[in-house]
Specification:
By secondary structure, the protein is of the alpha/beta class. It has 10 helices and 19 strands. It has a 6-stranded mixed β-sheet. It has a 5-stranded mixed β-sheet with strand order 2-7-6-5-4. It comes from Candidatus Merdiplasma excrementigallinarum. It is an enzyme of class 2 (transferase).
Length: 315
């Protein structure tokens, strides 16, 4: 996990209503992507209490508290809030009672409310925190969405990555980030790429300068985030190097422990990079759906050889 995410960012993203607006939450951080419903804690059981998690009070917890007397509730409130939990969120149009609000102010614990149902809200928070708190690295490259596939284009500076991305944008595909790609590992199978805030939607073209893709081509030409499904490495054509011409065996590159299919693409004058990237995206999608063109060709050749051998034996 990376270090933390600001509590204020969570509040803005989930559109939470702050019941203690006078409290300074700018320096409060969330350090885990887990969320807790403190059901047992409200009964007084605090062993193994995950106090570092966002705490969510749903309708069940709320109705349970409604059945307790004030003398029973206050010690439980005080014990839970004394753990310095990141925040307390009431869901499903429920609200804390005045005692909870006052004690939260005493222990400097923010309280939020949301109209969303508890299960849906928790799923949304966990999904968002998974991305925000995922391990992250920054690499040099261009990330584009081509036919729904996230294509990471890599290569040495000046080899034509941004020009290829611009041609893809003109052909109706979407830019996620140019020059710097922030890669987050959100699961053992999924890598998500985003742009740094400062360079989002910009492309650098040598000899022209910086262009704003969103303003130049419209909002349909950009995307905030995208999975990294395929890596294409651009390299100068090497006459002495043997390049894969069939693609029977997949090559991989690794980011944060996750392997991603990788193609090395030699650059020569006259090669249309945008069309090649489009073809690679569609071909990769076909493979995921169970069709492998290289394997199909190999099987046809093998079948043809077998037929010829059988024919010779018959003759």
């Amino acid at each position: 996990m990376s270090n933390s995410v600001a509590l204020s960012k969570l509040a803005d993203k989930m559109q939470l209503e702050n019941l203690l607006p006078d409290m300074d939450i700018s320096k409060k951080k969330i350090i885990t992507n887990e969320v807790n419903r403190p059901a047992l804690q409200l009964t007084g059981y605090f062993d193994h209490f995950d106090a570092e998690r966002v705490q969510v009070i749903g309708y069940v917890e709320y109705t349970y508290l409604e059945h307790l007397s004030r003398e029973e509730k206050i010690p439980v409130y005080e014990k839970m809030l004394s753990y310095q939990i990141p925040c307390l969120i009431y869901t499903t149009m429920t609200k804390p009672d005045p005692d909870m609000v006052e004690l939260a102010r005493k222990y400097d614990v923010p309280i939020f409310i949301t109209k969303k149902a508890t299960s849906a809200f928790m799923a949304e928070v966990i999904r968002w925190l998974n991305v925000e708190l995922a391990p992250c690295i920054s690499i040099h490259g261009v990330l584009v969405d081509v036919y729904g596939e996230g294509i990471l284009i890599m290569g040495e500076s000046g080899i034509g990555k941004s020009e290829a991305a611009l041609e893809l944008i003109k052909r109706g595909h979407r830019l996620i980030t140019d020059d710097v790609v922030e890669i987050r590992k959100v699961s053992d199978d999924t890598l998500v790429g985003t742009a740094p805030d400062i360079t989002r939607h910009f492309i650098e073209l040598r000899g022209i300068g910086i262009i704003d893709v969103k303003n130049l081509f419209g909002v349909q030409s950009v995307k905030e985030t995208g999975n990294i499904d395929l890596v294409i490495k651009l390299e100068e054509w090497d006459r002495d190097k043997e390049y894969d011409r069939l693609g029977l065996e997949e090559e991989y590159t690794e980011f944060l422990g996750n392997k991603v299919v990788c193609h090395s693409l030699p650059i020569r004058p006259g090669r249309n990079l945008a069309v090649i990237v489009e073809s690679a995206a569609v071909n990769h999608r076909q493979k995921k759906m169970g069709y492998n063109a290289a394997r199909e060709l190999y099987n046809r050749v093998q079948n043809s050889l077998m037929k010829n051998m059988n024919k010779k034996e018959e003759d």
